[in-house]
């Protein structure tokens, strides 16, 4: 016990810095966990969280057999997987390019410009997208009209939603995501590159045989963390961008839970859908971790 107190005294300032994060997870992640029981009850507001008839798996069965089940599952997976598929390699390549830039002024400028979108509010980003793609005076449709083509109402066309969502997500995140890769590349022993130059390797060979293998552990860990959130598509951006005309390609599990729970006041059903989403996410993370451990000998646990 004395050892524990001595460690706490030694690291008191680090623990103080960590305390807001710890409290956040306790209050918003662990304290609400008993609310999962709502998924198995016919909850009625005003009667208490643990009141109401026990209905077992009724809400799960109702959701799985609903006409929206496969649409929601498909949209949630695609809107999470497409940015990962097309955007995961971009921060890595950008980090390599940044490290290779010799002009420090231009390097700082490029980093600043690409980092800034990450700090823009989702509401502002959604507003920018809607304004830029406006069918009346948006800059994109203005250019289309200048080229002699017919204007497109992008935000009311379900076929365009995934493209808009994926491209805006990549633009907003790739610069900030590259920070970890830049740090990993900067930590590579310079003698490895000197040895490569002596052996006559070119830049592509240097990238393929030296840089990427050296940062492979970082890539694997970040890939696993990305897979962990593959079923947790950002609710805010989808909710701000979608509408009734784009439900076919835009409606995801989180927005469906919001409509059923907050707007429809069907709290038990909404909790069941949210719990189903969490179970699928856990299965995907566990499977991805197991597969990665077998293929690369690296994993989260």
Automatic annotation (TrEMBL):
The record lists the membrane-crossing segments as 12-31, 77-101, 113-133, 170-188, 219-242, 267-288
User: Can you cite a GO biological process for this protein?
Assistant: transmembrane transport
The UniProt entry lists membrane topology as: Multi-pass membrane protein
Residues forming the ABC transmembrane type-1 domain are 73-288
Pfam families according to UniProt: BPD_transp_1
Where is this gene product found? Cell membrane
Q: Keywords, A to Z?
A: Cell membrane, Membrane, Transmembrane, Transmembrane helix, Transport
The UniProt entry, under SUPFAM superfamilies, shows: MetI-like
Protein name as it appears in the record: Sugar ABC transporter permease
The species is Paenibacillus taichungensis
